[in-house]
């Protein structure tokens, strides 16, 4: 039988090392700072977390998603799933291992699409952890789920491109040493079709790139910038992946990146379920523990079943990526389902905790605020549903069966 849900011994050893590092080193080091990370406290906080990155490198837990020849651990997506889920037991975990968004996706993109010169200038410092990056695609004037509508435009002027436009929710922009910027370059391609956009590498800070504000979200100002681009001039050498290939590059980047988000969300959902059960076993009300009450048991059971489905979907989609198979439908399904499950499981955990769960005395309130963005980040639920339906219909038209659109599994 080819189906095996166990990890190879060497990967199990890595999983346990990541778990131990997160539990025994990262969490105790950052917990004393709480949410107060400003002024002199912030300087100490930065010193601590940068030191943790050095410790991750010493332990051989650096860049789990990158090839060994580029200083990484060389893990496939199935093995990466267990590293990401263990690291995400704390929000800083993936960043400390240098496998957090948006840098993780930008590393894959530069490795696949960059020239040798671009890899030396942008990828190597990103891998070393000496710079951070951002991916500038989303715009306020058009639907973020349809990148073919991008209005930021680049016009050729001699040996340079002059770029004007407007971006927002550009995560990490204020900390970034460079951006991958998506702009429309092809005027002869109709709006709404592919092949009109090009990706540019932008050194930051730079004249013409104005970070006007950090957009306030449900969970505060956390690094999602609004950018106004005015007469930004870039030479041809700053094009990444070739002129007119922006849409292809973006989709190449977003597919595995969506699944990496799911890996991290599973960890958050599991944490919420653990907290739900722990609370139910300790809270006494109306003659018995909450764990003995059928209504609470159903909340726990529904959450356990959903989490099981999440894990299976992510592992199967990851296996398809590792095999070089078409993974688009499976990743869309996983992204849609895991994002929704995360919201539902955290919500149930809050319900079982009652007013305590709604307070900031537990991490659940913050987890719920962060979870809500999962249902539209990297493609809204409805866009994924549309694509899943299209591929399901196409599979039936081609073969008379929908099997190929439901994982192509042998049952």
Describe the overall structure.
The structure is a single chain. This protein is of the alpha+beta class and 411 residues long. It has 3 domains: 9-100, Butyryl-Coa Dehydrogenase, subunit A, domain 1 (Orthogonal Bundle), CATH 1.10.540.10; 133-240, Butyryl-CoA Dehydrogenase, subunit A, domain 2, CATH 2.40.110.10; 248-406, Butyryl-CoA Dehydrogenase, subunit A, domain 3 (Up-down Bundle). The chain is built from 12 helices and 10 strands. It has helices spanning 9-30, 39-58, 77-87, 93-96, 103-113, 116-128, 246-282, 294-322, 328-353, 355-358, 364-372, 381-399, and strands spanning 133-136, 153-157, 160-171, 178-184, 197-203, 209-217, 220-235, 239-240, 284-285, 288-289. A 4-stranded mixed β-sheet has the order 1-4-5-8. The chain has a 4-stranded antiparallel β-sheet with strand order 2-3-7-6, with no helix packed on it. Strands 9-10 form a two-stranded antiparallel sheet. Strand 2 and strand 3 form a beta hairpin. Helix 3 packs across helix 7 and helix 5 (103-113) packs antiparallel against helix 6 (116-128). The radius of gyration is 22 Å and the shape is globular. The relative contact order is 0.09. Its cofactor is FAD. Residues 244-391 form the Acyl-CoA dehydrogenase/oxidase C-terminal domain. This is Acyl-CoA dehydrogenase family protein.
């Amino acid at each position: 039988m080819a189906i095996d849900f166990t990890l190879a011994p060497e990967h199990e050893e890595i999983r346990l090392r990541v778990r131990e590092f997160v539990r025994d080193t990262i969490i105790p080091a950052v917990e004393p700072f709480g949410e107060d990370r400003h002024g002199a406290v912030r300087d100490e906080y930065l010193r601590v977390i940068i030191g943790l990155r050095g410790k991750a490198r010493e332990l051989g837990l650096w860049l789990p998603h990158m090839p060994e020849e580029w200083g990484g651990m060389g893990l496939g997506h199935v093995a990466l799933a267990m590293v990401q889920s263990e690291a995400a037991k704390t929000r800083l975990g993936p960043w400390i291992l240098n496998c957090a968004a948006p840098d993780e996706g930008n590393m894959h993109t530069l490795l696949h699409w960059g020239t040798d010169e671009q890899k030396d200038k942008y990828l190597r410092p990103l891998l070393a952890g000496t710079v951070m990056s951002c991916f500038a695609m989303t715009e306020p004037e058009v639907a973020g789920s349809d990148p073919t509508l991008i209005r930021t435009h680049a016009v050729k002027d001699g040996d340079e491109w002059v770029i004007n436009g407007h971006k927002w929710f550009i995560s990490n922009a204020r900390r970034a040493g460079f951006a991958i910027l998506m702009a429309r370059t092809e005027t002869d391609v109709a709006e709404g079709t592919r092949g009109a956009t090009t990706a540019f590498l932008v050194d930051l800070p730079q004249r013409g790139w104005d970070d006007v504000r950090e957009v306030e979200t449900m969970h505060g100002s956390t690094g999602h910038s609004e950018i106004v681009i005015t007469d930004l001039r870039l030479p041809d050498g700053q094009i990444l992946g070739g002129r007119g290939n922006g849409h292809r590059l973006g989709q190449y980047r977003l597919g595995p990146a969506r699944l990496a988000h799911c890996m991290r969300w599973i960890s958050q959902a599991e944490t919420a379920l653990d907290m739900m059960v722990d609370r139910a076993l300790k809270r006494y009300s109306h003659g018995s523990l909450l764990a003995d009450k059928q209504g609470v048991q159903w909340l726990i059971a529904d959450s356990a079943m959903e989490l099981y489905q999440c894990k299976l979907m992510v592992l199967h989609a990851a296996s398809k990526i590792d095999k070089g198979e078409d993974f688009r439908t499976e990743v869309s399904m996983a992204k849609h389902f895991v994002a929704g499950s995360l919201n539902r499981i955290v919500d149930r955990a809050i319900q079982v905790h009652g007013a305590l769960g709604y307070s900031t005395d537990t991490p659940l309130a913050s987890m719920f605020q962060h979870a809500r963005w999962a249902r539209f980040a990297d493609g809204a639920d409805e866009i994924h549903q549309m694509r899943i339906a299209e591929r399901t219909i196409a599979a039936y038209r081609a073969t008379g069966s929908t099997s190929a659109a439901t994982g192509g599994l042998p049952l």
